Amino acid sequence: IINDDDDCIETFGSELELPAVMTEGICPSGWHIPSDGEWQIMEISLGMSESEASVRGWRGTDEGYQIKSTSGWHGNGNGSNSSGFNGLPGGFTQWTHKGQITGYYSSGNINGYSSWWSSSESGSNSWERFMTHYNDIVYRYNVIRYNGLSARCLRD
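-> structure tokens emitted (156 positions)
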């Protein structure tokens, strides 16, 4: 667990490094951490093209809007939650190339950003999904496994 701020944990949960996310029992029985492909299936079902879903970087039109919760995002950054995902702005913590921690998990920044793990590897990294309060698209990127991101479980 990266963050230990009780107020943030109560609202948004803990940020976890991927090794902690991939431990047995992190999801309830009958559930699992979604793969990158399963994230793409959801994004395509929300209107993203198949070719765009596999691209690295910012993608889509309003898929992020459909994934984000209807409240809690900074400014006018809320979504519609029409996907049923209810993506809360839980922030993230990342390691820099110099081994320093940066990120947005403090109470002053938490409601502007969120990142979620996938279970899929990309070389020595793993795929994530990232959203912000200032746009309605979805960022797909491969990040080091020791960043602190949120995790969602998907029904088997």
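The longest strand covers residues 113-122.
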